[in-house]
Amino acid sequence: MIAGDGRHVRIGLLGGSFNPAHAGHAHVARVALAALRLDQVWLMVSPGNPLKPARGMAPFAERLASARAVAAPPRILASDAEARLGTRLTWKTLKLLRRRYPRAEFVLIVGADNLTQLPRWNRWREIASGTRLAVLPRPGYTRAALHGRAASVLRRHRRAPGAMWAGRPAHKPWAFVPARLHAASATAIRSARWHSALVSGSNAAS
Ligand SMILES: Nc1ncnc2c1ncn2[C@@H]1O[C@H](COP(=O)(O)OP(=O)(O)OP(=O)(O)O)[C@@H](O)[C@H]1O
Ligand SMILES: O=C(O)c1ccc[n+]([C@@H]2O[C@H](COP(=O)([O-])O)[C@@H](O)[C@H]2O)c1
């Protein structure tokens, strides 16, 4: 995959459960696209986050449809790549994507809550050394994330967003991408739906 100006295509991977997708995902994708000068962002729907319980997780097809509803083609696309590759571990997804698209440059995009979680991911040091990482602020999480274990272990490799593509460092850089905070969360949406189902259920009964 080669961009119009001859350089390698830059793809941001915003992996997530998307249970469901919401305006916060679209915001993060738009900010990352512009700040990191990406060609595309993929809203990559996980077949099942290895750290999240399967209970309460909507079917994959439903979550993918919700990601399609917030996508903005041709630059921001919903992706079922992990389901097609048959993987849910990020290190493996990255390895298979690199094999499939050897000329693309991938950046992993995460909200601040996921930078805090990163040390719990399978092979996280390998992921961070081999793949660029962009961290977006999230209400209630940013400060702790930027002072957390992952940020501390990786502090020598932190760069400004504009320097993300400079040089060919052996250990890939990561950047905090300052942005307007967006309060949307899938947990809040699920809880609001649950409450409104409860209210309409009790109305039906009365
Ligand atoms: N409002 C937001 N601001 C910044 N990052 C976000 C926001 N919402 C989601 N993200 C990031 O998008 C990615 C996918 O998120 P995910 O699909 O889990 O949504 P979520 O709202 O965090 O879901 P849940 O509440 O079920 O955990 C994660 O890296 C997450 O940090
Ligand atoms: O590879 C892992 O061990 C791993 C552990 C937890 C989360 N992830 C990935 O982190 C991304 C965000 O997940 P989520 O559920 O917080 O939206 C998604 O792509 C998951 O597959 C990956």
TrEMBL record:
Entry's family note: Belongs to the NadD family.
Catalytic activity: nicotinate beta-D-ribonucleotide + ATP + H(+) = deamido-NAD(+) + diphosphate
Listed pathway(s): Cofactor biosynthesis; NAD(+) biosynthesis; deamido-NAD(+) from nicotinate D-ribonucleotide: step 1/1
Lineage: Bacteria, Pseudomonadati, Pseudomonadota, Alphaproteobacteria, Acetobacterales
GO biological process: NAD+ biosynthetic process
Pfam family of the protein (one): CTP_transf_like
Protein name, UniProt field: Probable nicotinate-nucleotide adenylyltransferase
UniProt-recorded Gene Ontology molecular function terms: ATP binding; nicotinate-nucleotide adenylyltransferase activity
Alphabetically ordered keywords of this record: ATP-binding, NAD, Nucleotide-binding, Nucleotidyltransferase, Pyridine nucleotide biosynthesis, Transferase
InterPro entries attached to this UniProt entry: Cyt_trans-like, NadD/NMNAT, Rossmann-like_a/b/a_fold
Assigned EC number: 2.7.7.18
Residue span, Cytidyltransferase-like domain: 13-190
Functional description taken from the UniProt entry: Catalyzes the reversible adenylation of nicotinate mononucleotide (NaMN) to nicotinic acid adenine dinucleotide (NaAD).
SUPFAM superfamilies per the UniProt record, alphabetical: Nucleotidylyl transferase
